[in-house]
């Protein structure tokens, strides 16, 4: 069995997978289409005379205009539905497949691929398109409706993913609701049992409402702080860009002045006939080259100092923002712990009260067997309430630690990258200056005195 992998080409030829516009995989005994994900710019694909029974795995070919699938084993007209996603498809060949013998073959394809221009090497006339549209109108309308619903769902999912990424960038994802609260009880078996005790439901409802409000406060605060960090970074980037551009303009001006003088000097040297004058002018020109290199290096050192000051100021500001963010989040998380502690005290009070009623035989409510098993003695119920409490505190602590770790890591990585980028820029600029100096010096050195005198 052969597979279309993007590297198995007709006649043993290999097509560059980087950005081909046409690919011919005819006569390869291919049974499965796959491995074409890198051919995003492909416009014309031929899979003629293979063993393909299903049209799929072409999603990456968003620019596809011409598709040849003649002489294969495609027998289900529903394969045509898959091709509706290729908005630029204008030419399709399916002759020699079992579906081509279907009575409704041409009408079906014209109805479901209304933008197609050529089918099996024949132009589709307007009359055929009109007949196909009328014949399959109900089916195509229903399909369009389903496609619109699917597109709307995809757009909603994309919007949710983008929103989640924004929340992650602010380090407050899943804090805009009851997610943290719910997660505290998701694995808390004892807590779930205790929640069914008389009087606990109302206590839980009040606790959850207050807890979620604090989470929402963290969430809203996190988004606002993210905007401040982003504004600080944007301002920093603007200052760096302005400083670099101004420095580059000064460097270009100095270089342009030098080049004008340099070309004139080279011309003058070539026109000199006296060796002494030639040597003098060459020496003068070497001094000009050295002077230019020094001037450009001085400009670069001034820029380095300016950018170092800008970077240090940004680093102080961004660190201050992050530290303030962490401090306030920790304060809000402390409120969550205070709520949990208060809830724990109230829950323990209720549990002890129920235990006393059970011992005295005064409990009117029936408890499930697994809940009643917690009330065999005081130690058992106290341990159960305490275990639930500890698990809740651990969830709060873990979420706080995760937030603090991530924002600190982000800050460290950002500052390190800025310093590294500046070092790379400086090294590249110094190299450019040295290379330019070597280049003009080489032009000067090529003026051999003997050749000039000749």
From TrEMBL:
Its main location: cytoplasm. PROSITE patterns: LRR. Keywords: Cell projection, Cilium, Coiled coil, Cytoplasm, Cytoskeleton, Flagellum, Leucine-rich repeat, Repeat. Transmembrane segments: none annotated. The keyword Repeat applies. GO terms for cellular component: cilium. SUPFAM superfamilies: L domain-like. It is found in: Cytoplasm, Cytoskeleton, Flagellum axoneme. It comes from the Eukaryota. Residues 147-174, 275-324 form a coiled coil. Belongs to the DRC3 family. This is Dynein regulatory complex subunit 3. It comes from Camelus ferus (Wild bactrian camel). The gene is DRC3.
């Amino acid at each position: 069995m052969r597979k279309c992998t993007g590297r198995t080409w007709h006649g043993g030829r290999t097509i560059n997978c980087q950005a081909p516009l046409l690919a011919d995989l005819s006569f390869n005994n291919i049974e499965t289409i796959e491995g074409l994900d890198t051919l995003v710019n492909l416009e014309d694909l031929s899979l003629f005379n293979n063993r393909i029974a299903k049209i799929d795995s072409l999603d990456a070919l968003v620019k596809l205009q011409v598709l040849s699938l003649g002489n294969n084993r495609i027998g289900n007209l529903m394969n045509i539905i898959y091709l509706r996603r290729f908005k630029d498809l204008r030419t399709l060949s399916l002759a020699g497949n079992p579906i081509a013998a279907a009575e409704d073959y041409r009408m079906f394809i014209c109805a479901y691929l209304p933008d197609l221009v050529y089918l099996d090497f024949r132009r589709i006339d307007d009359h055929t398109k009109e007949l196909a549209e009328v014949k399959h109108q109900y089916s195509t309308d229903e399909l369009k409706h389903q496609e619109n619903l699917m597109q709307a769902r995809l757009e909603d999912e994309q919007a949710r993913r983008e929103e989640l990424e924004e929340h992650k960038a602010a380090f407050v994802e899943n804090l805009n609701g009851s997610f943290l609260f719910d997660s505290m009880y998701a694995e808390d078996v004892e807590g779930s049992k205790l929640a069914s005790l008389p009087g606990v439901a109302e206590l839980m409802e009040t606790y959850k409402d207050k807890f979620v409000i604090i989470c929402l406060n963290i969430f809203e605060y996190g988004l606002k702080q993210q905007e401040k960090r982003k504004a600080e970074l944007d301002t920093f980037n603007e200052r760096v860009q302005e400083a670099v551009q101004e420095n580059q303009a000064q460097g270009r001006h100095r270089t342009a002045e030098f080049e004008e003088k340099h070309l004139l000097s080279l011309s003058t040297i070539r026109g000199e006939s006296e060796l002494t004058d030639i040597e003098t002018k060459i020496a003068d020109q070497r001094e000009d080259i050295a002077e230019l290199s020094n001037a450009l290096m001085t400009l670069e050192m001034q820029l380095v100092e300016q950018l170092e000051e800008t970077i240090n100021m940004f680093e102080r500001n961004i660190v201050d923002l992050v530290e303030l963010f962490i401090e306030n989040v920790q304060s809000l998380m402390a409120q969550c712990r205070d709520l949990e502690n208060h809830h724990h005290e109230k829950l323990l009070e209720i549990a002890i009260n129920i235990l006393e009623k059970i011992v005295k035989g005064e409990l009117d409510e029936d408890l499930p067997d697994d809940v009643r098993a917690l009330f065999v003695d005081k130690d058992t119920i106290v341990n159960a309430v305490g275990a639930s409490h500890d698990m809740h505190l651990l969830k709060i602590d873990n979420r706080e630690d995760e937030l603090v770790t991530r924002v600190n890591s982000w800050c460290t990585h950002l500052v390190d990258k800025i310093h590294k980028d500046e070092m790379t820029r400086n090294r590249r600029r110094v190299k450019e200056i040295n290379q330019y100096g070597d280049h003009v010096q080489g032009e000067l050195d090529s003026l051999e005195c003997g050749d000039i005198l000749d």
